[in-house]
């Protein structure tokens, strides 16, 4: 396993909004141990072969991966596997030994052949914009007996154990998931801590304990209902009315600030706050006649006022970000601030004038209306205001619900568009590699031979991830020079929960995915 100086990406602390202490009971009824969680991140698909998005929140709880991040861990540890290690000194052969007698929730055996089937299937289907991009270093998967799986890599890759820990690598049942196409329907056959009892798209998922589960999770409740909301205010109101027990992804800044400042609003509610590695950024499409021009992108970058967005729109619940690698990870930098400094209309005008552009640049900016929280629209209105107040741009704003928005990115329809990134794993590579190359998660080809052919391969040979800072500083210098990706802000993490609920501090893994099994109900105060 790689060793390095990674800091946990989801270090949470509870803001003391309550007094007293909880007494926990292990003999409550099933009904008492059911937890209801609210979130604004509904899955886009139930098939892991298709999703490279926050569908992973559900997968983490109903599927199993060979490795995973237990609560508080910064490095992957065995889950469906009993042990895993590089079998050579070059980081090109990685072998896992499975736990004994693993089964899927439907009772079918989970063996080495099922693991190989999962990886071969994902690569065969190769969904556009899907998670196959994470497996760029994988050459082949081999099995020996029922429990041994060996991954042979095309080139050294010390991050491969991190990749195996992502919910994209969820092991599926070969009897239930077709080899050459995505599975349809609203059921899941996984081997995770929970089984999916029922699912209604965009509304709710009902999880119950998987009686066949063998893995690292210590389940502290018996069942979880996940409710999907479209507005933060509606979700928080449901919490106040005791219709849900916990709120997570999508909390709006105004709801967080009110909870921090208003004693009456937080009565009976606890707020858990911590650092996070969620980022927001803008993408410029090279197919667009204006966005493809480097001086346009540079002038855009020179005008943007990140602190104003963080303060006015998010009320300082986020922090301005000047590199694609967030604070808290080896390789974080401030390249966009170093090159562009404070916002300057005069400097931006000179950039455009030097390129022979003397009229306001027309650009259409796109955002998703329901994926990242209700403040997204306000953020883009503020971006439009900043750009148009400069007199250098003429901006049109357009928004779509996530499903339609995501389909549009796959068709490369948008000149400039906003995206969010929740890391697949806590390493600087995961904030650079997914966005670079002819095939990337953004579906906007971004060839950069120095990054893909030199910087990343060199960093992947280094098992000590704390020793690759120079490589990532170089990669970020190239990104700043191109200004094809424009980092905007880095989020903090917030969970609101009823005073009856414990475990919020432990419920988020380093990729900010909620491990529902850590939540439990208190019996008294």
From TrEMBL:
Highest taxon, organism lineage: Bacteria
Domain Solute-binding protein family positions: 75-440
UniProt cross-references to InterPro entries, sorted A to Z: Peptide/Ni-bd, SBP_5, SBP_5_dom
Keyword Transport among UniProt keywords: yes
Keywords associated with the record: Signal, Transport
Subcellular localization, as worded in the UniProt entry: Cell envelope
PANTHER family: PERIPLASMIC BINDING COMPONENT OF ABC TRANSPORTER (PTHR30290), PERIPLASMIC OLIGOPEPTIDE-BINDING PROTEIN-RELATED (PTHR30290:SF10)
Family according to the record: Belongs to the bacterial solute-binding protein 5 family.
Name under which the protein is recorded: ABC transporter substrate-binding protein
Organism: Streptomyces durmitorensis
